[in-house]
Amino acid sequence: MIRVIVPATTANLGPGFDSLGCALSLYARFECEKIDSGLWIEGCDEQYRNEDNLFVRAFRRAERAMGVSESPIHVRLNTEVPASRGLGSSATLSVGGVLAANALNGNLLKPDECLALAVELEGHPDNAAPAMLGGMRASFMEDGKPVTAEVPIGENIGFIAMIPNFETKTSDMRRALPECVPMGDAIFNLSRVAVLIRAMETGDLNLIAHAMTDRLHQPYREKLIDDCDRARRAAMESGAAAFCISGSGSTCLAVADGENAETIAEGIRKKLADSPYGWRVLHLNPDRCGAQVEELR
User: Fold this and answer.
1) Under DSSP, is residue 38 helix (H, G, I), strand (E, B) or coil?
2) Cα–Cα separations (whole angstroms), residue 32 to 47, 71, 104, 175
3) Close Cβ partners of 182 (under 8 Å, ≥ 6 residues apart)
4) Which of 26, 27, 84, 174 could anchor a disulfide with 8, C-beta 3.0 to 4.6 Å?
5) Residue 240 in contact with residue 254, Cβ under 8 Å?
6) DSSP class of residue 274?
7) pTM above 0.70, yes or no
8) For residues 48 and 57, what is the distance between their CA atoms, to the nearest angstrom?
9) What is the 3-state secondary structure (H, E, C) of 108-135?
10) What is the pLDDT of residue 171?
11) What are phi and psi of 60, to 5 degrees?
12) Strand partners, 76
């Protein structure tokens, strides 16, 4: 039996729409082994205990890529990553399934091949790349394949995730976006994402505060996230340096000095305590290792 541990991720980070992502210290764990027959899935609702489970679909896709027969498997899911909240829950399943299949079949796939399969399942690399490789990543697609580069991130950088009690669908959030944007908005984002990458590397929180602003997606998506403005005020009034939507939501994310992040998180909890949306506030750090595979026996 093997265990695959995959970190949650946050994508976009303000101006880095569909291109930036960072792994976070919140984890999905998958224990998997080959069995004599059938498919046995534990740790999820009954409706997901079948071949349509994204982990299983990823496992099967990797088997096909390796040219091996489908294996009867036992899978136990144990995840801290909430579904449909903008924290890369689907990427954890895609990455986990690919890596589990590879590990149980002698690691026939190279790391870049594993990443390509996970991205194929996800449709884009902004969550899959940091989930698999860790840290902060800048990524894009070229000729149908992911290209990704590490963005060094300062040791002083901490994150605070504000997770409400409602889901958002990526498809709905996509439909909220305009098909065309003004040239000025494109330039606004390009200039800020360039500065944000350098600011993250140096840990310059003041520069991050200026650079983590966006005109391409957040102004449209914020309207679909209840209490988003209140979450922003709570974060900034509590001492956060910057605020953004995590992925397409509904989670919101603040950037703060790591040494003070838990104190800031507690301030946010108090300010949101009476909200009807049940905000769960978590102090998270960048995960710098990415997905890990362990042999259990």
Assistant:
1) coil
2) 19, 11, 8, 37
3) none
4) 26
5) yes
6) T
7) yes
8) 11
9) CCCHHHHHHHHHHHHCCHHHHHHHHHCC
10) 81
11) -65, -40
12) 31, 42
Judge contact between 75 and 31, C-beta under 8 A.
yes
CA distances from residue 151 to 13, 108, 129, 160, 264 in whole angstroms, order as listed = 12, 28, 12, 19, 25
Q: Which pLDDT value is given to residue 31?
A: 98
Q: Do residues 18 and 91 make contact, with C-beta atoms less than 8 angstroms apart?
A: no
DSSP state of 70: P
**Look-up of token digits 């600011």:** 199
Q: How many CB atoms lie within 10 A of CB 57?
A: 15
Run means of pLDDT, 10 residues per run, the chain, 297 residues: 97 96 98 96 93 97 97 97 95 98 97 97 96 98 96 97 91 88 96 97 97 95 93 98 95 96 97 96 98 92
Q: Is the omega angle on the peptide bond into residue 250 within 30 degrees of 0, that is, cis?
A: yes
Structure-block tokens of residue 240: 């956060």
Dist CA 6 CA 158 (whole Å): 19
